[in-house]
Amino acid sequence: MTGILAKLPAYVKGTVVKGFGRGSKELGIPTANFSENVMESLAGDTGNGIYFGLAAVDDSPVHKMVMSIGWNPYYKNTKKTMEVHVIHDFENDFYGSELRVIVLGHIRPEKDFSSLDQLIAEIHNDIRIAKSRLEEPTFKAYYEDPFLTKNSTNK
């Protein structure tokens, strides 16, 4: 793997944009999407796959997250996306908000599924893995990283 995710942790921030609308509606797992500009600004190959880390939306507290980077083979996307599932129940959509994430680890490569139910089950498994891994002492200090505050200018 090359590019920004070749060496973790990786710091990414950008404005949340509308995606394909599948996360909440079809999957029951809402995602916040980074714009194509964020994808383009990342140097080199970002490394397709499923990652875990921490996220903050505007001035929200820090939450655990799972992020998919790639082509979403089940849906046969024609453009690469970065979709973040913030592991928290938000009352409203937050399109236009600033999303800051620290990518801390890799869960698995991107893969195709033969059914929507298989895809949903795998995403729920990814979420379980992320929750568990983010409890490891190795990652505790990142919950206080200044990058996750809205007024942060670092990284």
TrEMBL record:
Q: Which residues form a coiled coil?
A: none
The record's top EC class is: transferase
**Domain Riboflavin kinase positions:** 5-135
Keywords of this entry: ATP-binding, Flavoprotein, FMN, Kinase, Metal-binding, Nucleotide-binding, Transferase, Zinc
Q: What SUPFAM superfamilies does the database record attribute to this sequence?
A: Riboflavin kinase-like
Highest taxon above the source species: Eukaryota
Q: Does the keyword rRNA processing apply?
A: no
The answer to whether the entry has keyword Transport is: no
Gene Ontology molecular function: any one: metal ion binding
Q: What is its EC number?
A: 2.7.1.26
Pathway the protein contributes to:
Cofactor biosynthesis; FMN biosynthesis; FMN from riboflavin (ATP route): step 1/1
Kindly state which reaction or reactions the protein catalyses. riboflavin + ATP = FMN + ADP + H(+)
User: Mind telling me which GO cellular component terms the entry cites?
Assistant: mitochondrion
Any Pfam family: Flavokinase
Database matches in InterPro entries: Riboflavin_kinase, Riboflavin_kinase_bac/euk, Riboflavin_kinase_dom_sf
Q: Please list the GO biological process terms of this entry.
A: FMN biosynthetic process; riboflavin biosynthetic process; riboflavin metabolic process
The cofactors named for this UniProt entry are: Zn(2+)
| Function of the protein | Catalyzes the phosphorylation of riboflavin (vitamin B2) to form flavin-mononucleotide (FMN), hence rate-limiting enzyme in the synthesis of FAD. Essential for TNF-induced reactive oxygen species (ROS) production. Through its interaction with both TNFRSF1A and CYBA, physically and functionally couples TNFRSF1A to NADPH oxidase. TNF-activation of RFK may enhance the incorporation of FAD in NADPH oxidase, a critical step for the assembly and activation of NADPH oxidase.
This protein's name: Riboflavin kinase
Q: Which organism is it from?
A: Trichoplax adhaerens (Trichoplax reptans)
